[in-house]
Hints:
The protein has eight helices and no strands. The chain is mainly α. The longest helix is centred in the last third of the chain and has 35 residues, at 139-173. It is globular, with a radius of gyration of 18 Å.
Amino acid sequence: MLNAPEGSPAGRTVMTAGxxxxxxxxxVSVANRLPLPGGVTPDLVLLTVxxxxxxxxxxxGLVAGFCAGLAADIIPPADHTIGRYALVYCLIGYICGLASxxxxxxxLVPFLAVAVGALIATVLYAATGMLLGxxxxxxxxxxxxxxxxxxYDVIASPFVVWAVLRVTRRYExxxxxxxxxxxxxxxxxxxxxxxxxxxxxRL
Length: 203
């Protein structure tokens, strides 16, 4: 499917759903079991939503964020009010999707988007918990969790974002070969830009 010569909206939807499901499985089976200091773990689902939003724009980011958040609300060990992650992730997806056009010009955009997304997501999740009367949500806990959450997410972001970009690029390569490449910045960082300039000089 990812190497199909012709893409379609349905195919992109299936690809996006598959990426989100993979992130949820890794979050529950791997990330949540990491014995990291502070009892905080990287949010792989949030990173996946950020990556999808940076690649496809704010609308996809909003829809992917809502679906991923709703799934995270339901999958055990869910111990909070259903809808909190759905609200937070869809807002993060929309906000990060607004920066998708900067992917071609600024190589630091993914890292900044992850840091800002982790910060806003943690604060919004705590704020909704306070409104709903969650005793575990307090500004004291937020002040302790936010720095660690942002740090862990930024550390994990190169791996998650790169994987999502890689999968999406494989799909889109056969879909729009002549359109503007959203992945020019990451490719350039791994030597792709040098290769293209060398080929261009020969032509």
